[in-house]
Amino acid sequence: MPDTRLDLARIRAARRVIDPVFLDSPLYRCEALERELGCRVSVKLETANPVRSFKGRGTELVVHGLVERGERAAVCASAGNLGQALAWSGRDHGLDVTVVASRAAPAAKLDRIRALGAHLELVDGDFEQARARAVHLARERGVRLVEDSLDVETCEGAATIGLELADAGPPFDAVLIALGGGALATGIGHVLKSCVPDTEVLVVQPERAPAMARSWRARRVVTTDSADTIADGVAGRFPIAEVLADLLLVADDALLVREESIIAGLRLFLTHAGLVVEPSAALGLAAILEDRARFEGRHVAVVVCGGNVDLPAYYRWLGVAS
Amino acid sequence: MPDTRLDLARIRAARRVIDPVFLDSPLYRCEALERELGCRVSVKLETANPVRSFKGRGTELVVHGLVERGERAAVCASAGNLGQALAWSGRDHGLDVTVVASRAAPAAKLDRIRALGAHLELVDGDFEQARARAVHLARERGVRLVEDSLDVETCEGAATIGLELADAGPPFDAVLIALGGGALATGIGHVLKSCVPDTEVLVVQPERAPAMARSWRARRVVTTDSADTIADGVAGRFPIAEVLADLLLVADDALLVREESIIAGLRLFLTHAGLVVEPSAALGLAAILEDRARFEGRHVAVVVCGGNVDLPAYYRWLGVAS
């Protein structure tokens, strides 16, 4: 049992708090992808729910805790998916949600945050600027700041995906997980290392937004000056020390992939699996494409973490004229 | 309890026979669609499984029965999805599967039937020609013919979707179901009329392949000379009397929709739900688009029955240049 901030009993208990619409997402072999990749591929699909990403698992836990403690409002910074999920989870509990995001975030994500009734404040710059503004806003208003990956509920919510992977039959040889702030990776990783320790936990980040992967390799926080990738969902520059400490205990390797491999992954998902996914969700396939020998003949699970994508950009990446 | 050929106890028992990968498919509110449609819309997603359609539920039952009776081989005619599912279910049980299909069926469906190890025989003409050839082949070889919608297992497998819809909380005001041979419609309809009789069961067929809907309206089998629709999965011309008799007991209305409405439905699913679906799966949205007043403010479930589509054709329908 890795000695992270996460707790397996709490993760199991989380299943009783999280709205079932987010739990037990599809997990299935996708043989049409396998011919292209040379390994067995199972898809864990986190896009078929009201917010089209895995983030609802965490925000359900977060909001449950806030409401229990009598909080009436919360602020978060978001690349788009957390904000959408927090807005969704907050709405039915009468929690006043403010989301701070970069003006450059996908319009599809920003539109949905607004439609779900959250206050949306846009900032110039990237996710880290949004994070700084959210910290400021929360202090100014005396309101709880929800911090993705730092707040253990966001990790333990994501970790319920790990339970579903671990319970799915013979252990996978490897699980490929998108690496951003680290909630998804440490969450799933903690459960896998606890329950099926022989399954390799591989976390994947874009070469052009490599801060957390480089930190894992260096075993200390490494920041970057830019995070310039189409995988907007994982484009942070300032890794959180506590999350890195957890990641060091559960990840077997941290891989970096090129933008063109992410696009190739997007194309494979559409062509062979009929799935429209956002770039962060294609990091796993990108990793296989960049090192087929490593995965040859093995059974790999890829976590399709989100499907919120602006169609015009998606068409552009795929070379399709809309 | 409608007096069809189906049986609720058998349908409940079917859940123990069907591979769990086909059961408990996602069911979720899709608010991004609602703004466009003027009613509450829940999506029942039958595409996130190894054969990307609901047909696996039925073929699991069919193959279980065949193997129990010592059969070693089976033949079916298919528009593409049944063949794929029968090939999948047959493969692990050592059942020798032959699928007869029209040469005009989507390449994606035909490729997957072959890849799953079934024998594929192509015929000129449409589904009805494939059906005639399958009957001939089965007789010639003394092999069991699997007949979609006529074989009650295909209906009762599909009916497990009905259980999941009926158990999902407050009853839906209406459920929209694609109508082809009738297995899906009579299956879901039987369960809904048994468990939540106030839920309206609406079956939808393309205007250009209207045989079963016209038969329902006339209360007798009506055949057509052609079935010329992009919704290849429901394009039959010769309704089966036994299935019509069941449909008359469970459907509240049979709607016909235009091709351009089906395409509009495809576009809505992609743009607002991030879902690539085949035309048959867009019949429900097409029905809402053609009669918004009928659905205004109501809570409607649409069964997204399949996602096997040839991308070049899909792009063409959507006016996208690949």
From TrEMBL, chains A, B:
Name this protein carries in UniProt: Pyridoxal-phosphate dependent enzyme
Organism: Amycolatopsis iheyensis
Co-factor(s): pyridoxal 5'-phosphate
Keywords, alphabetical: Lyase, Pyridoxal phosphate
Single GO MF descriptor: threonine deaminase activity
Domain (Tryptophan synthase beta chain-like PALP): residue spans on this chain: 23-306
One GO-annotated biological process of the protein: L-serine catabolic process
Presence of the UniProt keyword Lyase in the record: yes
Keyword Lyase: yes
